[in-house]
What does this fold into?
Amino acid sequence: MVEAMEERFKKDVIREVRMGDGRLLLHYEVEERLGVFSIRPIWEPVDEDDIMTPRDVFNLMAKEGFKVGLGFFNCRVIADSI
It folds into this structure.
């Protein structure tokens, strides 16, 4: 389910890059003074091949010879310990 959402997001980003002639509109925060922030837009050039899901990155690293693996752990959260 999450991977399907990531794929849809990747497609959305690629569509935006194509509409923006290879650029993607991003926003970042700048602290103007202590505790006061403003949001600044910036058009960032992006190559479509650099837009990847976590699965894409995992597969690329494995293809390049990195020893990668996924580990899943079960853990219990006890309400009194939060």
